[in-house]
């Protein structure tokens, strides 16, 4: 999943790796987009800082398309232009303000 957020909206594209080449030939793998989506932030969400808006977009898309991440293969990747956001998700203690609660 590739995700990004601006001051007013978040967007994402979910891709899938597919092999290209003649039948029986392993060929090369390419990423093919299988889903595009976007949403506008609420008035409250537009007041969030940059990293929190990025995280909000990731959480929104993971919740909305959770069925696409249920797989027996190894963990999928979330790509977005702000590396500190991903570090925040995986390195923050559970009691931090960025903790994801259901």
UniProtKB/TrEMBL annotation:
It holds the Pfam family RT_RNaseH. GO terms for molecular function: endonuclease activity; hydrolase activity; RNA-directed DNA polymerase activity. Transmembrane segments: none annotated. This is Reverse transcriptase RNase H-like domain-containing protein. Residues 2-84 form the Reverse transcriptase RNase H-like domain. Residues 76-95 have a biased composition (Polar residues). Keywords: Endonuclease, Hydrolase, Nuclease, Nucleotidyltransferase, RNA-directed DNA polymerase, Transferase.
């Amino acid at each position: 999943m590739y995700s990004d957020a601006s001051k007013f909206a978040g967007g994402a594209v979910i891709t899938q790796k597919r092999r290209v080449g003649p039948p029986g030939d392993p060929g090369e793998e390419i990423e093919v987009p299988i889903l595009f989506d976007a949403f506008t932030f609420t008035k409250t969400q537009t007041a969030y800082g940059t990293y929190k808006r990025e995280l909000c977009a990731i959480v929104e898309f993971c919740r909305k398309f959770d069925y696409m991440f249920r797989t027996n293969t190894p963990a999928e990747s979330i790509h977005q232009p702000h590396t500190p956001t991903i570090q925040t998700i995986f390195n923050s203690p559970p009691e931090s303000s960025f903790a994801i609660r259901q």
